[in-house]
Amino acid sequence: MNSVDQVFRIVLLQCAFMVAGGLLQAEELVPRHGAADPDGKTMWYDCRFLAVEGKGWTNTESYYDRLPANAKSNVPSAVWNLGHDTAGICFRFTTDSASIQVRWILLKDNLAMPHMPATGVSGVDLYSTDHAGKWCFVGNGRPRGITNNATFNVTAGSDHILYLPLYNGVKSVEIGIPKERSLASPPPSPRDRLKPMVFYGTSIMQGGCASRPGMATAAIVGRGLDVPVINLGFDASGKMEPEMATLLAGLDPSVYVLDCLWNMSTQMVSDRVAPFVKKLRQVHPDTPILLVEDSSFRNTTPTGKGKILREIHERLKAEGMGQIYFLANTGMLGDDWEGTVDGCHPNDLGMMRQAVSLIKTLAPILRNTRR
């Protein structure tokens, strides 16, 4: 069961039966929320009316930003600029249509990178539940310019997740369905009451270099554990500055996952990790914090910075800090050296392997917090 608490799964299934019986109702978007297409057959609905996940703050400069507007003057400029990328932001919805269209307008015309395809940098991903409730990949919206359109065939009545681009931002996202069909946010469920997992890290956490948004490690972990995710990965900029500690402390997650070592020097690790963790602990006395060693496709364990992180972890525990955990990189990328595109950034295989490692570690941590 992907290492998920069986009891919690049963609760979710019970909720599904309630929905099937009509006791819980989806929040349907009415036609006034949509715009008729010139073809006379399609209604377009702005995704901002749907259930959004992956946003830690509502007071953002743009609706699709990952950081609050007041962070602009506090965090490093590189972090602020990367906050416009929509990594981890997704929408959940259901529809009685067997076909949907997605139209999205990008912020940047740089659709791809030398080592990461446009489908991951600037594309969208659609997942749907099968008859057993498992999330399955449906298709990728492939970007061809600033304005893009993709069509997907789906099972009417299923739940859907639409993931937004990993290394680009969006100005708008719309879903188009036949005008006689309906679109709705999913009905309420126990999952809606779960606190999200917050992942803070580097380009790897942001999603580099997954081939598509749904294959980013954080997204895989979110589906595997069926827990909302906030992705705060920042390319080359996950450096545990004090300002970032203050910012993250303003969130209220189920767990903090800190995976920054690839962007930090050994001196940074020595100087910044403990104060960063203590700031989070000061505001959140009981929230689990998971420290993650930097991945190594050559299976170097511990890495030089990982050795320092291990010592910090042990010291924090010796000082009496509870709910502080450590995840070694052992086996995180497999043992065949095939898990990256460049010796650093995971490919899809590496992303999946990292996700499996994180799921195995996070499942018991989350299970204990629910008791």
Number of domains: 2
Structural class from helices and strands? alpha+beta
CATH level-1 class of the largest domain = Alpha Beta
Q: Percent range for helical residues?
A: 25-40%
- Strands, total number: 17
Number of helices: 9
Instruction: Please name the fourth-level CATH homologous superfamily of the largest domain.
Output: SGNH hydrolase
β-strand percent reads: 15-25%
CA-CA gap between termini? 19 Å
For the sheet with most strands, the description reads: 7 strands, antiparallel
Morphology call: globular
User: What are the low-pLDDT stretches, counting only 5+ consecutive residues below 50?
Assistant: 1-24
Task: Give Rg in angstroms.
Answer: 20 Å
| CATH topology term of the largest domain | Rossmann fold
The CATH architecture term of the largest domain is 3-Layer(aba) Sandwich
Give the overall pLDDT as a whole number: 92
- Topology as H/E string? HEEEEHEEHEEEEEEEHHEHEHEHEH
What this model shows, in words?
The structure is a single chain. The chain is an alpha+beta fold and 371 residues long. It folds into two domains: 165 residues, Jelly Rolls, CATH 2.60.120.260; 176 residues, SGNH hydrolase (Rossmann fold), CATH 3.40.50.1110. It has nine helices and 17 strands. Strands 1, 4, 5, 7, 8, 10 and 12 form a seven-stranded antiparallel β-sheet that branches. It is globular, with a radius of gyration of 20 Å.
What topology does this entry show?
Layout: H1 6-20, E1 27-28, E2 34-36, E3 42-46, E4 51-53, H2 77-82, E5 90-95, E6 99-106, H3 118-121, E7 124-129, E8 135-141, E9 147-153, E10 159-163, E11 170-178, E12 183-185, E13 197-201, H4 203-206, H5 217-225, E14 229-233, H6 242-249, E15 255-259, H7 266-283, E16 289-292, H8 304-318, E17 324-327, H9 348-369
Parallel strand pairs: 13-14, 13-15, 15-16, 16-17
Antiparallel strand pairs: 1-12, 2-3, 3-11, 4-5, 5-10, 5-12, 6-9, 6-11, 7-8, 7-10
Helix pairs in contact: 5-9, 6-7, 7-8
